[in-house]
Design a protein that fits this description.
The protein is an alpha/beta fold. Helix content is 42%, strand content 14%. One of its GO terms (cellular component) is membrane.
């Protein structure tokens, strides 16, 4: 029953607020990019947080204060279908994301994602995929932040799959920081339950950003491993397998928990 309620809520919310997108486009035309992005993002955040509440999911997040000013490329591990809701609901940095091109065929969803400067990619069409990457670079250069899942597909909480370097190359070409983000527990909301939504605990850790001067001279595959290593370390900390980092890189007192 919970699963059905969530599907109905998502459809009704997006349809009800689809007109909001048109209003925002008119109101914020010609105004700073950051203002419009935050306004659009606030609507997406409400939708995402309410979805997590309906799922009975408690979300805790640490490290939002680590986001630098300006556009960034966020790189997260990919555990399940609720990753986007968790990240949209609780990351304080407005962002669009890379999505499979099939989503573009859903009218109401498409208008929201276009307003958020999401990028639709067809991995089966190399020419289109390259064009999508160029569009992502353009968005970053304009001042919009983007989120990618370097694994490409969900890992269902069973370790990390290899990180692909293609999407990460957008950061170097746009000369923006990469911010690794570690997600733990989203697969327990749906994937662990044969597609049914059940309550779960989700943790998010925003890692220290990797600035262009740190990665610009590294080969693409080493950049991917650099990002993967940082996420791996954060996941291990969540599991309690390693000691916390020194205070200068991880300040527990500055972290906070948000009830989903």
């Amino acid at each position: 029953m919970r699963t059905v309620i969530i599907y109905i809520f998502e459809v009704l919310y997006l349809m009800r607020h689809s007109i909001t997108i048109k209003q925002i486009n008119r109101t914020y035309k010609g105004r700073p990019i950051e203002e419009k992005d935050r306004r659009v993002y606030s609507q997406a955040r409400q939708w995402a947080r309410q979805t997590m509440r309906l799922a009975g999911t408690k979300v805790s997040i640490k490290g939002n204060e680590k986001f630098p000013e300006g556009p960034v490329l966020i790189a997260s591990n990919h555990q399940g279908n609720f990753d986007i809701m968790a990240l949209l609901g609780y990351l304080e940095k407005p962002f669009g994301f890379i999505s499979k091109i099939e989503v573009k065929n859903i009218p109401v969803v498409r208008s929201w994602m276009e307003a958020m400067h999401c990028v639709f990619i067809d991995r089966k069409n190399r020419k289109q995929a390259l064009a999508a990457v160029q569009k992502g670079i353009h968005y970053l250069e304009e001042g919009h932040s983007l989120l990618i899942f370097p694994e490409g597909t969900r890992n269902f909480g069973k370790g990390l799959k290899p990180f692909k370097s293609g999407g990460l190359s957008m950061a170097s070409q746009a000369n923006v920081p990469i911010v690794p983000v570690a997600l733990e527990g989203t697969y327990r909301v749906m994937e662990d339950n044969d597609g049914k939504v059940k309550p779960a605990k989700v943790e998010i850790q925003v890692c220290d950003p990797i600035f262009p001067e740190e990665y610009k001279d590294l080969p693409a595959n080493e950049v991917a491993e650099f990002v993967k290593k940082r996420i791996t370390e954060a996941l291990e900390m969540m599991e309690g397998n390693v000691q916390p980092l020194p205070k200068k890189t991880f300040i527990a007192s500055e972290s906070r928990e948000i009830q989903g």
